[in-house]
Amino acid sequence: MSERRYHHGNLRVALLTQAETTLRTSGVDGLSLRELAREVGVSYGSPRRHFEDKAALLDALVEVGLQRLGAELAKAVEPDGRDFAEVLTAVAISYIRFATESPAMVDLMSRSRYLSQAPAALVEARDASFAPVRDLVERGQASGELVPGDVRRIGTLIFATLHGLATLANNGMIDPLDDRLIADAIQSLLAGISNTESR
């Protein structure tokens, strides 16, 4: 394989694709720019044109994961006549399926660096990824279905529920395809954050 086959952004895409494959099979410790170059079939120095070091590669992988997750969440919240609980259940199913299909990616995305110390570009990517859920919460509050208050706090409660279910699924403690269990969890969550005064 020749380095000449790659033009412009193609090498970056190829490196990220291979890096995600390696992440899935060998984890973060199995990733190195040198080995990545060998697997893609380019010179050892080529990856550094796109990623200064391994940390930059991991940042780029997280951004890829966030973009993919954001697209899935956006599809889940598309307005189509469903009620709030049904849409939130669809969000939960989308997140859990994403997490169980890409557990190594979710583990990487959940590292403390990306939760509390992320570079500005990744904070922006993370906010964009979860924007569909934030917008859903805001719609729920505007319609009186959710309690008023800090959108981020309510979003954190929702994310904690979804991530907890995904973790149980990835640990083999629940069936990731058990949509009924997911719906029951969402109903229990909504019992705590629904705006009962509006009913």
- Total count of strands: 0
Percent in helix: 55-70%
List low-confidence stretches: none
Going by helix content, strand content and strand pairing, the class is: mainly alpha
Helix tally equals 9
Task: Please provide a written account of the structure.
There is one protein chain. The protein has 199 residues and is an all-alpha fold. It is built from 9 helices and no strands. It has helices at residues 10-26, 33-40, 54-76, 84-101, 103-109, 112-116, 120-142, 151-170, 179-193. The radius of gyration is 19 Å and the shape is elongated. The termini are far apart. The model has no long low-confidence stretch (mean pLDDT 89).
Give me the secondary-structure topology:
Layout: H1 10-26, H2 33-40, H3 54-76, H4 84-101, H5 103-109, H6 112-116, H7 120-142, H8 151-170, H9 179-193
Helix pairs in contact: 1-2, 3-4, 3-5, 3-7, 4-5, 4-8, 4-9, 7-8, 8-9
Task: Please name the defining characteristics of this protein.
mainly alpha, 68% helix, 199 residues, 9 helices
